[in-house]
Amino acid sequence: MVQQVTQGIKISVKTKFDGTYYKDRVMLYAFSYMVTIENQSKDTVQLTSRSWIIKDSLNGIESIEGEGVIGQKPVLAPGKKYAYTSSALLFSPFGAMKGYFNMVNFTTTSDFRVSIPLFNLSAPFSTN
């Protein structure tokens, strides 16, 4: 598990290899990841959007941006947590992801960015 705190918001990510998947006769490697967002600040915040960089060791880099996470824009009061699970398909058994969440502080009405730390995606059979 990797963790990082930005402006009082702690991001934790845990990954899992889910197996292989065939699509159009191409083998893909399926990974899931659980992200936990913990508000350690004194202010209520809301996640408004996200940005991901996904690196696949065989297929280069892909960028993904969008509103919220899994169709939600969670509001976190001080001391509260929000967790969700998502997934990624890679062309190789190795990859990595990182990114950030755009958030708004309800007390100051200011926007800020929370870093999502770099985490590796690797199939257990492919590492020594």
Automatic annotation (TrEMBL):
Residues 3-128 form the ApaG domain. This is Co2+/Mg2+ efflux protein ApaG. The gene is apaG. Pfam families: DUF525. Coiled coil: none annotated. Gene3D superfamilies: ApaG domain (2.60.40.1470).
